[in-house]
Amino acid sequence: MADTTDNADMPDGTVTAEPLARALGERYLTYALSTIMHRALPDARDGLKPVHRRILYAMRGLRLDPGSAFRKCAKIVGEVMGNYHPHGDQAIYDALARLAQDFNVRYPLVDGQGNFGNIDGDNPAAQRYTEARLTAAAAALLEGLTEDAVDFRDNYDGSEREPVVLPAAFPNLLANGSSGIAVGMATNIPPHNIDELVGACLHLIKAPNARDETLMDFVQGPDFPTGGIIVEPRAAIKEAYRTGKGGFRLRARWAVEDLGRGTWQVVVTEIPYQVQKGKLIERIAEIINAKKVPLLADVRDESAEDLRIVLEPRARTVDPALMMEMLFKSSDLETRFAMNMNVLIDGRTPQVSTLKEVLRAFLDHRREVLLRRSRFRLEKIDARLEVLGGLLVAYLNLDRVIAIIRYEDEPKTVLMAEFSLTEVQAEAILNMRLRNLRKLEEMEIRAERDALIAERADLAKLLDSEDLQWSRIAQELREVRKAFGKDSPGGARRTDFADAPEVEEVAYEAMIEREPITVVCSAMGWIRAMKGHVDPGAELKFKDGDGPAFFLHAETTDKLLLFASNGRMYTLSATQLPGGRGMGEPVRLMVDLPNEAQVLTLFVHVPGGRLLVASEAGDGFVLPEDEAVAQTRAGKQVLNLKEGVRAVVCRPVSGDHVAVVGNNRKLLVFPRAELPEMGRGKGVRLQRYKDRDGALTDAITFDLRDGLSWKDPAGRTRTVTDLSDWTGARASAGRMAPRGFPQSNRFE
Asked: Which residues are catalytic?
């Protein structure tokens, strides 16, 4: 559908109508492509996003070379924003600061002076306080820009020119890594060691058909600036590089420090990449307070220039490896770096690339840079040889040249005609100084011409031979290895590899000191654990309007099971309950118990035990306790319920018969063997109700020979041994309960 009507407000006087879906689709696609190509994904050739490329190019324009003086970052940000990247000064400064952070970038591209942040997570100082210049690594990325090594394009307003990509003397994409989130895709590439990357590139030059597995002999894996130890299996690392997707388990580096007399402490000297030290220590302190790692007593930060986190054990008999394994599982002392090598191939096509494809893209780019720089140099040599040829003609005919210059009105035209010179040669002769007419100058010109002719011949051979081109690229890579490799300052590998140690599994309860406690949970859900076994008749304090609901004698090694009206079973560790000095804490803060759900029962978990669970709809089954234990705050759904139906029963199973009573006061007794044993489900019908509003109120298991007991209103226990009138088949209606049965329709 298209329509045009007169509209004086439009520049051309017309307005075009089109379907909304197509208009939105086209505009969103334009936005998505812009985000992918110009903001989020790095170029495989130089490993940079546009903002980083523009920062380095602007700093080069300000002549902030590695040996120059520092300049204010505010000046650099203003230059970048005004000429190349009009997206806000804070975003530019954040990108600039990150390039200077040696804990974030393996080979920093910016040399910062001032506060550029730290591994604790503190932010850099304002841009008006900090100063910066380029590093040697950045200079290597920029080398060749003035020699037509890459294409240039107009900036955002056409007032300046900027490079499309940098020449990049080393594979910066893998050396420093990259991360970004685009529209519908993302990238996350870890940093690597330049020495290993150069080795892989040299092998790929010799064997272009090399497999990714072979390249893994050179590139061992990521090399993070903060060090650490990679414990990912070797097979998984190879698969990650072969597919371009995978992950690396990274652990902190630690050692046991002997304090004498049998005491010791663990000292952490390196933490995983992109983990903030301050938040890590806070997390470990929370773990200690919550007693999630009972082997650990204290944590201290003794860092100065070097990182040093001290972990004190609970006792000298603690196994250090076991303590650290528990910390690795519960804190960021172990993290997983998810790799996704989604990059722009040739600056245009987003692609999840393998290790070989990324290195191949870099090498092809280096060959293109070499060819362009060689052609550029060839043109410069030809231009210089033309000038030198004219100068030599002048020396051979010096007297005549002087006479022409002195007496002719148009010396340039006469020189060109008499000696067959080009305009460039004639102009060079006319611009020559008198002091250059000495004999020595002629000899220097001949020497320069001979050297240029030899260089030109070498360049011509280079351009004609692909083998020579790759040989030159290999030579340049060896120079890069010499400058930034393992023998250079900071070039040695920082991240090591190891297998996760085989630590004998020890039950959690075995690491907790076994002590008696009394667990008290109020009607409003506030729970606490008091030391020792308190007498049930003891006076306890509760909040105003609250009172006791559950009173349990337990031990610190026990697990508590909480069954709620939503049919979920939640697990609490007795050792992690709040102390009994105060009123406790809401149990809803410890487990994900919805506000609308009520706590039905709280009891000590008995391994191997059985539970009778049932809903008010009259359905239920026998649940093995071991299958009800949950490992997460969310608990386990054990009784499936329809909307609007609540769970009402959760009792231990002990007996050969089941007694069920409904709100119609009808009692039914049937053999327990008729109930199935299930780990989860709706269960089977226990009792049938004729009335639509009929509902199950309670159920219990008992031994038929002992009879069925309950308490009358006076608190006396009443037992009925002859239950033949109420015994029937499961799912039948039952008969009215005996005289004296509680009005609450419950067996308690």
From this structure: 129
